[in-house]
Structures are given as structure tokens and as C-alpha cells.
Write a structure and sequence with these properties.
The complex is a heterodimer of chains A (about 350) and B (about 475). Chain A has helices at about 5-35, 40-50, 55-70, 70-80, 85-100, 110-140, 155, 160-185, 185-220, 220-240, 245-270, 290-320; strands at about 270-275, 280-285. With about 350 residues, chain A is mainly α. Chain A has a single domain, classed as Up-down Bundle (Formate dehydrogenase/DMSO reductase fold), CATH 1.20.1630.10. In chain A, a hairpin with an 8-residue loop joins strand 1 and strand 2 (about 280-285). The longest helix of chain A is centred in the N-terminal third of the chain and has 33 residues, at about 5-35. Chain A is globular. Chain B has about 475 residues and is mainly α. Chain B folds into 2 domains: about 5-250 and about 325-450, no CATH class; about 250-320, no CATH class. In chain B, the strands form 3 sheets. Chain B has a two-stranded antiparallel sheet. Chain B starts with a helix and ends in a 22-residue tail after the last helix. The chains are: A mainly alpha (about 350), B mainly alpha (about 475). At the A-B interface, helix 2, helix 3, helix 4, helix 5 and helix 12 of A face helix 2, helix 3 and helix 14 of B.
């Protein structure tokens, strides 16, 4: 296999891991006001992802860095072309990350409710905008001959892309609800399962139509399989959730996300950034770094990615226990200083 | 303002801001890890109380470093797409490796450290924070390798077909002579930052004679680390100056506002140039010192700005190859001056604390608290100097900053970006500083609060709940 193809697969793997992992983080953040009726409940929700959200977000940084290293033209076109949506994502991720750390640092209801809003919007915006961005990548955007983006912001907000954004948002909410049902106990667990029951229907409707359009307009024969698999994942999740099999429900939504992302990347290949203007499009060939750089990066990725997967997986094992309202220690504040 | 100016302002603002948090993370992670090790080795509760106290401040700082770091990685593509296209074959690799080797280790093991007090055996828990520290060092190594390549590009050739830089020797990039001095210089400065932070906060408490059993050992540790590290900063800085004179003569000349070539050259303590900046009006000088700083010999010749300008015009074609001289000159002075002060403060502090002494003058503690700000000033001045001093180049001698900016992004979009980021960063700075002061003043947890919770008799996988040792 050509190294450019290997790297296309590695980039797809990095983004898939990111959406699988930060997908439920986003879902938990979006569900914070709905499922957390008081401060203790909200703290239960936040603490289900407390030890892991930062590690999950690193997949985004590595996906970005690896795109820069392996496909510099793709990195340059994508990040400068999708400028304002990406800026919004950055602002959202900044306030969201700080909110997790700072929310509990003052025992003050107004302080906490502000950070709760930051967590909600900081999760909702990226969840939606990543869907818009990836739908546009698959659909193609106007690119000039020098590969620079030649469209406007409004070109990015086409119906197909908005449907993509809706799909990722609902998928992540569902994934988050199923994750919460798996990681909590008591009333929150029941409520999370109830949310999942509704969300899975919405996910099948939005995700089903988005993947069907993707398949009809950009698909390959093999993407029938991945798209069908994603739909099957959602059905598994629906049935498992109804029967209270929370582990299976999580596997179902996880598989749906993985296979939906796989559908998008497979439909995209061998393009990485198709142009709607006929010229200026980027492929794995004309966007790639040289063979020497790709060879070095392949060694680094092959050696270190499995190690990362092992210790990150071990973290989930360490924090495997469910938490509930009784596991939350009382809020402690630093004593007032004269 | 055109898009180059706006993109440069954004890079300057976001990078200086990001670098408030980075060196403190590097320095403080090692100090916290060392205190926890001391607790495990000696079993003394004061070290555990110190670990918890400094750990809390460390986390308030770490969060800011993480979220501002995301912008750093994305803005190359957003604002500097032509730069990214030109250097991607070389510059992207260290960035990706930094993420894969360093960021994963830092974030994952910090999560384990924060939430794992009752879930991990003591030694494994302590190993987690040491791993976080190693992660910060790895991160620094790779990002500095990328930056050093911009200061002194090696291991590459220009592909004539595409007009882009192409990697020919990755090992050369990782062992760039510039990198080998920049890395120890930056790391020792990070230890000075962590050390004086710890010293300053300890001084505040000791002035009030509060929690002396925790803060006296903290202060001693902090001052020893700062003293050693600040000597390291001076030595590596000196070597770096000579490497810089060799590789970027314009930067050294600008650092000194040395307009005409001199042999031997004197070190300027204070210079005022004409308004158009190409001539010197008045200055105070120490003979021969610049020659020594730049070349290692008191008789060495140091090229002046005007000569270097002529030489670079001959080499790279017509154009202005001078950075903004006052910016380079004054930031260089601030950096060196602050560096000397940190060494002085730490050595004086150690002298005053010798053999169990506790100074009684409140001024000693006031100076201690104030000196906390020194490394932040010095770090910022150092980076502003080295980045502004490289101008007009983004990659020295190869790619100009003016040719690096994204051609497709409108100045309006860039303005929206720099204004929204600066506003958000400003708000977050107020919040962060407020929390830092609040938690620094609150002092360490009491002995009772850090006593280990009742033994864990519930190791089954049942869903039975137990209060978490730590929760957000």
C-alpha cells in the first residue's frame, strides 16, 4: 500500500477516535442542563468524564498535527478555508476546558451556573460544527488553483452540511446519554436511559437521511456496508437501551459513530479536499508530504499509537466504577482570608 | 493594518499568553512530583500537605496552558497557510510527534493523578505526576525543535518543482545546534519560573508565620532549584548568544543596537537612537564586553546593523533586513536583567535562610513575593526578542513573514479572530489570577484533612458507591 494511503487511513483513524471519545464528552456537556437538576447531579455528570475528557481531546490535537505533517496542503486549505467555524470551535473548546477545571473552585451558585452554561455551549457548538465541517469536506468546497478556499462563510452553511451538523449533534447526545447510563447509578441512570430512547429515534432519522444522501451523491459500493453498519449500530443501541443492556447500547452508538465517520472518509478517498470549481482540488497525492517524512511519521505512529491506546484504556479501567449522587464529596471552599 | 500585521499581532498575543502557563507547568510539575516523592519516602505529613497545596495551584495553571495550546496548533493553518504549505514537510512532524508522545502522556496521567488519590497505589500515583513532568519536557523538546528550525533551518532542501522546503534529514532537525542550546535555556528558565512561583507564595505565608512547617521546606526547595536553574539559564544563554551571533548576526546587532561594526565591541547598558532608528544618539557602554558575549573573546569583531544589512541585501536581494531595533534592544535588556535578578534573589534568599534562620524584616518577604513576577517578565521578553529579532523572516534566510500569511483569509476575519481571542484571554486572565490568589492565600489543607480515608474494603466491581477522593 502506498504511504499516502496509509496516512489517509491513519488520519481517518485519529478523527474517528476523536469523535468516538469526545463524542460522549460533548453529549454529557449538552445534557448537563437537562439531566442535572441540581448541583450535585450536575457534578455527577461532569465527574463521569472528569478524569478522561482532556485525554480524549488530545486526539483532536494529534489529528490536526498529523494532518499538518502528512498532508500539509490539506491542513493549510482546511484550516484557513473553514476559518470562522474553526475559530468558533476553538473559542468553545477553550471555555469548555476551563469550565471543567474552574467550576468547582468556588462555592457560589452564580459562578457555577455560568460555568455550566460554558460547558453546555462549549459542547454544543463543536458537536454541531464538526459535522458541518466534515460534510463540507466530503461535498467539496470552492478552491482556487492555489488550493486556497475561494468561497464565503455562507457556502459552508448549505443544507447538506447543516444536516451533517444536526447528525453529529444528535449522535453525540445519544452517545453521551448511553455513556451516562453506563457510568452512573440511581435516578440519573434512569433519566439518561429515557433520553437515549428518544435520541436514538432522532439519530436514526437525521443520521439515516444524512448517510443516505452521502451514499447516493458521494458513495462507493463499499460505503453501503459502512453506512448500513452505522444504521445497524443505532438499532442495536435502541434495542439494548430498551432492555437495560447499557454496555451493548454503548457499543452500538460507538459502532454507529465509527462507521459513520468511516463512511465519510471512504466516500472522500482518494480526495482529501475536493473542489466544486473543477480545479484546485486536493488528493492524497498532491496534498501529501514527501515519502521520507511519511516514512518517519509511519514509524512514530506505528510504535506509539498502540502504547497510547493501552494506557488510555487502562485509565478507563481505573475509573470503571459507576458514580452517583452519594459519591460526590461535599463542596469545599478555601477558608476566607482576612 | 493588513493581514500580515493582524496575523502577527494574534501570534504574538496568543503565544506570549500561552507561555505564561507553559513554563510554570514544566517547573511546578517537577516540584510537586518531588514533594510527593518526599512524602512517600519520609512519611511526613507536611510533604503531603505541601503536595496537595502546590498541586492545586498547579492545576489552576495547567488548565489554561491546555486550552490556549489548542489555538497554537490551529493558527498555523488558519492565519499562516502559505507558511504551512511551504514548511509542512518539515514543521508538521515535530508538532504531530509532540501530540502523540507528549500531550497524551500529560493529559492522561494528570487525569489519573487528580482523580486517582484513592484508586492507585502511592508509588504509581506519584509515578503519574512524574510522567506528566516528563511529558512537559518532551513537549518542550519537539516544539522547540520546530522553532529552532525557523531560527536556523537545517536538514532540508528546496524542491525546485514546487518551490517548497523538503525534509532531507530528520535527525539534523532534532539535533539542530540552535535546538541544543534553546532547549536547556528554556527548561532552566521554566525551573526558575516554577521555583520563584513557589518561593513567592511561600514568602507570603512565612511573612505571616502561617503553616511554617509546610512553607519553610517549600521555600528552601524552591530557592535551591531557582539558584541552580538561574545559573543554568545564564550559562545556556551565554552559549546561545554565541550561536546566535554566528547564525543570525542581525539579531545580535539589533540586541545591542550596534549600528557600526566594532572590534572590540562594547556592551551597551543604555542607548537612544534617532527616531528613524538607524543611528545612535547617546549611550552608556562597557568596553569589550559585547565582544566577549558574542564571540567568546574580548577582541572579537561584532558586525553592526548597517554592515549586516548590506551583506544580507547582497545575499538575498534588495529589501530591509532589520527587525524593529528598539523592540529587540529593550527586550534583550529586560531578559538579561531579569535573569540576573532571579539569580541574585535566590542566592540572597538561601543566605538569609542558612542554618534554620528566619529573617524578621518584612521587606525580605515583600521582595520574595514580588520576585514571583520576574520570570514571567523575563520569559516573555526572551520570546519577544528572539521572534521579533528574526524578522523580516519567518524561516530565517528562506521564507519571509510577509510571504507566510494566508492569502485567502480576509483581514476582517482575522480581526474578528484576534479581537475575540484577546477578549476571551483577557477575561480568563482575570478569572485565573483571582482563583490563583484565592487558593494561594488559603494555604495548605490541615493535617486532618489529608489523613488517608478508611481502608478500601470494597474492591469488587459492584456498583456500591463510596465518596470520591476528589471530584470536580
Amino acid at each position: 500500500m502506498e504511504l499516502t494511503t496509509v496516512w489517509f487511513i491513519i488520519i481517518a483513524f485519529l478523527w474517528t477516535s476523536y469523535f468516538f471519545l469526545e463524542g460522549f464528552d460533548f453529549g454529557v456537556g449538552i445534557l448537563l442542563p437537562a439531566l442535572g437538576r441540581d448541583d450535585v447531579e450536575r457534578r455527577v455528570l461532569i465527574n463521569t468524564i472528569g478524569p478522561v475528557w482532556d485525554g480524549n481531546e488530545v486526539w483532536l490535537l494529534v489529528a490536526g498535527g498529523a494532518t499538518f505533517a502528512a498532508f500539509p496542503e490539506w491542513y493549510a486549505t482546511l484550516f484557513s478555508g473553514f476559518y470562522l467555524p474553526l475559530l468558533l470551535i476553538l473559542l468553545a473548546l477553550i471555555v469548555r476546558g476551563v469550565a471543567f477545571e474552574y467550576r468547582g473552585k468556588k462555592d457560589d451558585a452564580r459562578w457555577r451556573s455560568r460555568w455550566d452554561k460554558a460547558i453546555f455551549w462549549g459542547s454544543l457548538l463543536p458537536a454541531f460544527l464538526w459535522g458541518v465541517a466534515f460534510a463540507n469536506i466530503v461535498r467539496g468546497v470552492p478552491l482556487a488553483a492555489d488550493h486556497e478556499y475561494a468561497g464565503t462563510l455562507l457556502d459552508l452553511l448549505n443544507p447538506y452540511a447543516l444536516l451533517g451538523g444536526l447528525t453529529t449533534t444528535i449522535l453525540f447526545v445519544l452517545h453521551g446519554a448511553v455513556f451516562l447510563a453506563l457510568k452512573t447509578s440511581g435516578d440519573i441512570r434512569t433519566q439518561a436511559r429515557r433520553v437515549a430512547t428518544v435520541a436514538v429515534v432522532a439519530a436514526i432519522a437525521a443520521g439515516g437521511s444524512f448517510l443516505l444522501i452521502t451514499q447516493l451523491q458521494h458513495g462507493k459500493p463499499v460505503t453501503w456496508l459502512t453506512a448500513g453498519g452505522a444504521a445497524a449500530g443505532l438499532l442495536v443501541a435502541a434495542v439494548a437501551n430498551r432492555r437495560g443492556r447499557e454496555g451493548w447500547a454503548f457499543i452500538g452508538t460507538g459502532a454507529a459513530i465509527v462507521l459513520a465517520v468511516a463512511t465519510l472518509f471512504t466516500a472522500l478517498f482518494p480526495d482529501v479536499m475536493p473542489s466544486t470549481l473543477g480545479s484546485g482540488g486536493l488528493t492524497t497525492q498532491n496534498a501529501a508530504s514527501t515519502g521520507y517524512t511519511l516514512k518517519i511519521m509511519t514509524w512514530v505512529a506505528v510504535v506509539f499509537t498502540p502504547i497510547v491506546l493501552i494506557y488510555q484504556g487502562w485509565t478507563y479501567w481505573v475509573f470503571r466504577k459507576r458514580i452517583g449522587t452519594s459519591s460526590i464529596p461535599p463542596a469545599k471552599k478555601p477558608e476566607p482570608v482576612p | 493594518m493588513d493581514s500580515v500585521d493582524i496575523a502577527r499581532w494574534q501570534f504574538g498575543i496568543t503565544t506570549v499568553y500561552h507561555f505564561f502557563f507553559v513554563p510554570l507547568t514544566i517547573g511546578l510539575s517537577a516540584l510537586v512530583a518531588g514533594l510527593e516523592t518526599a512524602w512517600i519516602r519520609t512519611g511526613k505529613t507536611k510533604y503531603l500537605r505541601a503536595t496537595k497545596f502546590w498541586g492545586k495551584l498547579f492545576l489552576i495553571n495547567f488548565a489554561m496552558g491546555v486550552v490556549t495550546g489548542i489555538v497554537q496548533e490551529f493558527q498555523f493553518g488558519m492565519n499562516w497557510s502559505d507558511y504551512s504549505r511551504f514548511v509542512g514537510d518539515i514543521f508538521g512532524a515535530p508538532l504531530a510527534i509532540e501530540g502523540l508522545l507528549a500531550f497524551f502522556v500529560e493529559s492522561t496521567f494528570l487525569g489519573l493523578w487528580i482523580f486517582g488519590w484513592d484508586r492507585l497505589p502511592k508509588k504509581l500515583h506519584n509515578a503519574s505526576i512524574w510522567l506528566v513532568h516528563i511529558g512537559t519536557l518532551l513537549s518542550a523538546y519537539f516544539i522547540l525543535a520546530a522553532n529552532s528550525w525557523m531560527q536556523h533551518p537545517v536538514g532540508y532542501r528546496i524542491d525546485h518543482e514546487t518551490g517548497r522546503a523538503v525534509l532531507t534529514d530528520f535527525w539534523a532537525v532534532l539535533t539542530n545546534s540552535t535546538q541544543l542550546v534553546s532547549f536547556p535555556h528554556t527548561i532552566t528558565a521554566a525551573f526558575v519560573t516554577g521555583g520563584l512561583f513557589m518561593a513567592g507564595v511561600s514568602a507570603w505565608h512565612l511573612a505571616r508565620r502561617k503553616n511554617v512547617e509546610v512553607f519553610r521546606p517549600s521555600l528552601k526547595l524552591a530557592l535551591v532549584v531557582t539558584a541552580i536553574a538561574s545559573i543554568g539559564v545564564a550559562i545556556t544563554g551565554d552559549v546561545q548568544g554565541k550561536v546566535m551571533t554566528d547564525q543570525q548576526p542581525m539579531k545580535m546587532a539589533a540586541a545591542e543596537a550596534l549600528y557600526e561594526t566594532e572590534q572590540p565591541a562594547s556592551f551597551s547598558i543604555f542607548t537612544i537612537g534617532t527616531l528613524n532608528g538607524d543611528e545612535e544618539v547617546f549611550g552608556i557602554k562597557v568596553p569589550r564586553v559585547l565582544s566577549f558575549l558574542a564571540t567568546g573573546s574580548f577582541d572579537g569583531e561584532v558586525k553592526g546593523i548597517n554592515d549586516v544589512q548590506a551583506a544580507e541585501q547582497a545575499r538575498y536581494g534588495p529589501g530591509d533586513y532589520r527587525p524593529i531595533i528598539p523592540v529587540a534592544y529593550w527586550n534583550f535588556r529586560i531578559m538579561v536583567g531579569v535573569g540576573a535578578l532571579t539569580a541574585l534573589v535566590s542566592l540572597a534568599g538561601l543566605w538569609l535562610l542558612r542554618r534554620g534562620r528566619m529573617p524578621s524584616s518584612p521587606w525580605v518577604y515583600r521582595i520574595g513575593v514580588l520576585s514571583l513576577s520576574l520570570p514571567f517578565i523575563g520569559n516573555s521578553a526572551g520570546w519577544i526578542f528572539t521572534e521579533m529579532g528574526r524578522q523580516p523572516w519567518s524561516v530565517f534566510g528562506v521564507l519571509k513573514t510577509s510571504a507566510s500569511v494566508s492569502p485567502g483569509v480576509t483581514p476582517t476575519s482575522m480581526l474578528i479572530s484576534v479581537i475575540s481571542l484577546t477578549t476571551l484571554y483577557g477575561i480568563l486572565m482575570v478569572i485565573e489570577a483571582g482563583l490563583m490568589i484565592r487558593y494561594a492565600k488559603a494555604g495548605p489543607p490541615s493535617e486532618d484533612e489529608v489523613l488517608p480515608p478508611p481502608a478500601d474494603d470494597d474492591d469488587s466491581d459492584s456498583d456500591s458507591e463510596r465518596s470520591l477522593a476528589f471530584a470536580y
